[in-house]
Amino acid sequence: MIPARKILNGYIGVVLLLLAGFGHQARAAEKPELLVAISLDIPPFVMDKATGGLEVDIVRQALRDYSLRFIQLPYEELQTAVQRKRVDVSVGVQPGGDGVHYSADFINFVNYAISKKTEGLRIGSVADLRGHQVLTWENAYLELGGEFEAMFSPQSPQRKNYIEVADQEEQVRKFWEGKNRVIVIDQSIFLYFSGKMGHGINEVNFHAIFPPVTNFKVGFRDATVRNRFNEGLAAMCGNGEYAGLLHRYGVVVKQTACE
Is the peptide bond before 44 cis (omega within 30 degrees of 0)? Predict the structure, then answer.
């Protein structure tokens, strides 16, 4: 007859082996974590402290094999976050940093110059912005074409009429509160914040003086992760997930990042 203590010890040994196996499997199943910088809330692209929104969902789905931890930064800081080794990934940037691996275009914004109908401003070209206060996001003068850059670069006399605002909700508020102001902003962002402030599309004129879309990329410290993102993005374009997210968030663009 086998002593009870020996049987108990045998059971304990089996349980310990099983627990060790489960622990190994759990560790193997853990996803590598990435620290991801993204903009301040700009609905419908980044929402609810970066827990949702079009940009957040695109990045999550394209990098579904990774665990992502988002931190929010003003746009100007997004541009250098990877270079300064603050994060592994920076979302919504333009190429131009050494040591950064840039993705394919992942999102497009439809930017307009917008004025109040009551002010009757005639704006048919970038040159017509002369003499008006222009409200933009950070570094917008670098991203909206050569004519806009020449007019509002730091050395230009027109720079005195150019105001960059880090928080785009505040940018929209400044537009509605001021006079003789033209806001340069993505249409969807403008309409979202204007609606919150009690203003409608019938109060403004949209002036299409910029390229149809402005493209943004994702910057990575690691080229392998960048490649995985590009593969995931291409798959989303091919299987309809990308189009589904655009529809979910009500974003309409003339040309998507999939085209």
Answer: yes
Q: Are strands 162-164 and 133-136 parallel, antiparallel or unpaired?
A: parallel
Distance CA 71, CA 78 (A): 10
Q: How many CB atoms lie within 10 A of CB 42?
A: 26
* Under 8 Å between Cβ of 101 and 219: yes
Residue ranges of domains in the chain, CATH in brackets: 33-108+214-249 (3.40.190.10), 111-207 (3.40.190.10)
- Which residues, in sequence order, are CB contacts of 14 under 8 Å at separation 6+? none
Determine the distance from the C-alpha atom of residue 226 to the mean position of all C-alpha atoms in its chain, rounded to a whole number. 16
Residue 76 has pLDDT above 90, yes or no: no
Model pTM score: 0.80
Residues forming beta bridges with residue 181, ordered by sequence position:
133
| 246 sits in which H/E element | helix 241-249
Reported as a pLDDT band with limits 50, 70 and 90, residue 173 is very high
**What's the pLDDT tens digit per position in 198-227?**
999 999 999 999 988 889 999 999 999 999
- How do residues 102-127 score in pLDDT, each as one tens digit? 999 999 999 999 999 999 999 999 99
State how far the Cα of 228 lies from the Cα of 208, in Å rounded to an integer.
36
Question: What whole-number distance in Å separates Cα of residue 74 and Cα of residue 92?
Answer: 11
Hey, what amino acid is at 32? P
